[in-house]
Write a structure and sequence with these properties.
57% helix; 442 residues; 3 domains; 21 helices; Rossmann fold
Length: 442
């Protein structure tokens, strides 16, 4: 996500490094590179030009703080302006109404049906709602089947009507069904087309008029770049939608749609799709995204994801085990499982400040833990609970059983022992000791 743009902006900021002060010449040079980086990322030309003009005005009008170098000041100005360009504040979703009705719109192939499922899953697990998915794509039987499959996967009810070709009637009947069966959110998945056409626009406008949704979302494939922005504009003129959903953001290294769509249609980006799994959905936070684009990571989102997987009861049990020196490989394995639930490794590493840049070009596989899991699964229950019993012959057997080498088994043991020591140190009021150790390592 945004890899190319991050690299180019980083190079642009280097123009100001070593300069004692901001001048019209070095600002112009830096912003020329910034504009080029934005255009390469498929940002709308008008948007890129206005963006750099605003940053230039602010940069030249600044009394440079003595604590800030010109390069740091420019990064700050670009970050603030990027945040504003992408919407400034985080936009919420309107869940008022009984039931609350959400209408999904967009072209065919934009990921509407999959996203409808992700949104239902998000509202069910994070907002404790009881959603109902509604299949209103009457032209493509595969779309109705797909929605039923998605619903089954996330254990959410799906409403569809066989043989009925009137999406307005289906959506109205679905709302009545939701009221009868206690569903407090209705998500209406509509038909998409391969291109904007009058029949399609009229149909979705009729559904919109009939069901009066609390929230109309426009789903767009971010990999289509500027086309995505133009499509959003056409839909907005007919539907006056409430917000944008960007799908497949994990597959686009440019990210121009994310940056320009708000300024073109003046509607906020509300959600982003960050992968294929049903939980790969994030609320869009402009400030956090600006941080990530500029290579500053996104620690807040990382902590939030960790907290979602955090089990207080398990944590208490773990603390007791650490205190009694009983931390074993089964506990280590359960920690790995929690990390895996947080999302793809590449995405998580991108949230750590500086890590994305340091690991650039290295392919981080989601199966990074496979070898570790195989080694632990090849151990006996005794070996997992009491790692100190692992001698040479046991290690050979484990290596053979897991398809790894004795060297890899030893490496895992070393990492495990270091982790155990660190946990013990943090528990025994050793937070201070830990800080001292980290300071020495710098």
């Amino acid at each position: 996500m945004f890899d190319n743009l991050s690299d180019k902006l980083d190079k642009a900021m280097h123009v100001l490094k070593g300069h004692g002060q901001i001048t019209e010449v070095n600002v112009a040079e830096t912003l020329k590179e910034v504009r080029r980086a934005l255009l390469d990322a498929d940002v709308n030309f008008k948007t890129a030009k206005e963006f750099t003009n605003t940053v230039k005005e602010k940069a030249l009008g600044q009394n440079v703080l003595t604590t800030l170098q010109p390069g740091q000041l420019m990064v700050k100005l670009v970050k603030d302006e990027l945040t504003q360009l992408m919407g400034g504040d985080t936009a919420g979703i309107d869940l008022s109404g009984t039931p609350s009705v959400i209408l999904m719109s967009g072209l065919q192939g934009s990921g509407k049906t999959t996203f409808s499922g992700k949104l239902a899953n998000y509202l069910k697990t994070k907002k404790t709602k009881k959603p109902l998915l509604v299949a209103c794509d009457v032209y493509r039987p595969a779309a109705i089947n797909q929605l039923h499959v998605v619903g089954e996967q996330i254990k959410v009810d799906v409403y569809s009507e066989e043989g009925n070709m009137d999406p307005v009637a289906i959506s109205n009947n679905a709302i009545a069904h939701a009221k009868q069966h206690g569903h407090n959110v209705v998500i209406v998945d509509t038909a998409g087309r391969l291109a904007i056409d009058e029949a399609m626009m009229t149909e979705i406008a009729n559904i919109h008029k009939a069901i009066k949704p609390n929230e109309t979302l426009f789903v767009v494939d971010s990999m289509t770049g500027q086309d995505a922005v133009n499509t959003a504009k056409a839909f907005n003129e007919r539907l006056n939608f409430d917000g944008v959903v960007l799908t497949k953001l994990d597959g686009d290294t440019r990210g121009g749609a994310a940056i320009s769509i708000k300024s073109v249609v003046n509607k906020p980006i509300k959600f982003i799709g960050t992968g294929e799994k049903m939980d790969a959905i994030d609320v869009f936070h402009p400030a956090r995204m600006a941080d990530r684009i500029l290579g500053m990571g996104d620690v807040v989102s990382l902590v939030e994801r960790a907290q979602e997987q955090f089990d207080e009861e398990e944590s208490r049990k773990l603390q007791k085990k650490i205190a009694k020196n009983q931390f074993g490989f089964d506990d280590f394995m359960s920690q790995i499982q929690q990390v895996k639930k947080m999302g793809s490794m590449k995405d998580l590493i991108g949230m750590i400040p500086g890590a994305g840049k340091a690991l650039k070009g290295i392919d981080i596989d989601d199966d990074a833990f496979k070898g570790i899991e195989a080694i632990i699964q090849s151990m006996t229950p005794e070996e997992r609970s009491t790692p100190s019993v692992l001698n040479g012959s046991r290690k050979k057997r484990i290596a053979k059983g897991s398809g790894t080498s004795v060297q890899e088994v030893n490496q895992l043991l070393k990492q495990f022992n270091q982790m155990s020591k660190m946990m013990k140190m943090m528990q025994g009021g050793g937070g201070q000791k830990m800080m001292q150790m980290m300071n020495k390592m710098r």
